[in-house]
Amino acid sequence: MAESKTRTTRLTRAALLLGGFFALDKGVAFVRQVIIAQQFGLSAELDAFNVANNLPDMLFALISGGALAMAFIPVLSEVLNRDGQKAAWDLFSRIANLAFLVTAGLAVVVLIFAPQIVRSEVGIAPGFGTPQQDLVIDLMRLNLVATLIFSISGLVIAGLQANKHFLLPALAPILYNIGQIFGALILAPQQGYALGSVTLPAFGMGVHGLVYGVVIGAILHLGIQIPGLIRYHFQWTPKIGIRTEGVAKVLRLMGPRLITMFFIQLIFIARDNFASRLEVGSVTALTYGWMIFQVPETLIGTAIGTAMLPTLSELAASQQWTAFRRTVENAIRVLVALTLPIAAVLSFGLRPLLSLAFGFDDAGTDLLLWVTRAYLLGLAGQCLMEVAARSFYARQDAITPLITAGINLTLYVALGYFLSGWLGAPGISLADAIAFTIQAAILFLLLNRHLPVRLRLEGSLWRGILAALAGGGATAAIVWFGRGSPVLFAIAGLAAGGLIALPILWKELRILLRL
User: What is the pLDDT of residue 350?
Assistant: First the structure.
């Protein structure tokens, strides 16, 4: 029992640490996007930049981001606990070497076939005009430099998290955003910014400066984690050894995870394919709406899911299924209860803040608002996915998430095609919300079949709905009927909605603190 209390306390501390740094990261990312929006607006040039990021991001996510991390951490944790740090770093080196070589090979393919990838009817931007497509090709090729750096940096995150070190991996995305801010403030503008008595220099690179900022951010992302490698006595092994036991096990898990991540990344490709056929600014509205949605999703779902994976992996390895079920169940209760009111409060309180932050005209602000609202309908489902998927990977089961990801992609493409023609860009984000919520529900139904006792919500769902009605209603009333500054009333509405929801969720908040 004492060991269980120690573990859950450590998990809570890790989740709160990650949540805090994720909040800081999202704050810096929001500043970055505001700076970029103020410079480029809902323009064809910014649409091109956002589309150009997708394929390099896919390579990173597949090779050394989500694909390997999910498959890597359970195996690395097992080796670390069983054979010690030296053996764990040997496995890490072999996987990192392989990831870099594969990423480099795929980057060459993208470099050569970029025109076909962009212009094809099933490509990433078939609806753009030729000059805009040429810009996408140029930016995408340049972005591959950052992808090569991330092929190592993403794995370093997994290696440090397997050692239960979360601080430097949490700092890395913040520095990545700082690099991008440098690109947006210094490299992109045609003339410098005046900050008080100081005028920042400008290099006049335009949208290309944003990509150079991405490369600088990637270098910082890797550099901040090097002290962690030193602290945990990392020793590089210049080998791969595909038939080595640990490497083979990671690859067995990675195969299904790779396809799973490919399905997930295809959603972003399909999103921009649909949006490129809509009005100018649709791609950027979806990108920014996703970024706004990701703030609560990351602070709650990703923070809890990331902190849980090493613990769930330990519990699964030692077959402590009762403790495993209790940990997952508590996470579900917290996520369901918190995400519903957060989505409601944000939906009713965001518009004045979006108008102030991004400076779009009324039509552009309304487009971004409805895109974001549609994403927020899926906040609970997305956050539950963070825990559901990790529950299966902790059991070293990568097949079940793969099957449900295929269902998710099929639903998304069908719904996105239909809803984008009916509702425009908000229809695309609504398709995302529906598809991910259905996938989360399927995963938990399947997880219940493998646990000794069924997962229970014990009133958390109803308290979440009640908190959403009370908090969302209060926010809407203050924003709609307030007389004076819309921004001040929006802030007041968000604060009042949150405060009204808190007492209703007190039980789940206590669970969070002892998760």
Answer: 93
Amino acid 2: pLDDT: 45
CA 61, 62, 64, 68 dihedral sign is: positive
**195 three-state secondary structure:** strand
Sign of CA dihedral 267, 269, 272, 277: negative
Query: Which whole-number Å values give the CA distances from 388 to 316, 336, 394, 397, 511, in the listed order?
Result: 14, 13, 10, 12, 18
Look-up of token digits 């039980």: 507
Of 232, 234, 57, the C-alpha closest to 139 is 57
3-state SS assignment for residue 194: strand
- Determine contact, residues 412/431, Cβ cutoff 8 Å: yes
Q: How many residues does the structure list for the chain?
A: 515
Q: Which residues contact 177 (CB under 8 A, 6 or more apart)?
A: 25, 28, 29, 31, 32, 217
Tokens describing residue 456: 């229970």
Distances (CA, A) of 335 to 158, 288, 298: 24, 23, 12
Distance CA(5)–CA(2), nearest Å, equals: 5
Q: Residue 422 contacts by C-beta under 8 Å, 6 or more apart in sequence? A: none
Among 323, 343, 419, smallest CA distance to 5 is for 323
CA triple 140-95-170, angle to 5 deg: 65
pLDDT exceeds 90 at position 374: yes
Question: Taking the model in full, what pTM does it have?
Answer: 0.75
Q: Which residues contact 126 (CB under 8 A, 6 or more apart)?
A: 119, 120, 273, 276, 277
Q: List for the chain the helix, strand, coil content (%; round to 5).
A: 80, 0, 15
CA distance 159 to 313: 14
Q: Which has the higher per-residue pLDDT, 102 or 11? A: 102
Q: How many CB atoms lie within 10 A of CB 248?
A: 13
> Please, what is the Cα angle at 201 between 195 and 202, to 5 degrees?
115
pLDDT digits (tens, 9 = 90+) for 261-272: 788 888 988 998
Asked if the model's pLDDT at residue 206 lies above 50, the reply is yes
CA 308 to CA 117: how far, in whole Å? Answer: 38
Residue of 366 and 254 predicted with greater confidence: 366
Alpha-carbon gap, residue 249 to 66, rounded angstroms? 17
Residue 202 has pLDDT above 60, yes or no: yes
State percent of the chain over pLDDT 90.
Answer: 36
Contact 338, 464 (CB under 8 A): yes
For residues 64 and 180, the model is more confident at 180
Residue 187 is given by DSSP the state I
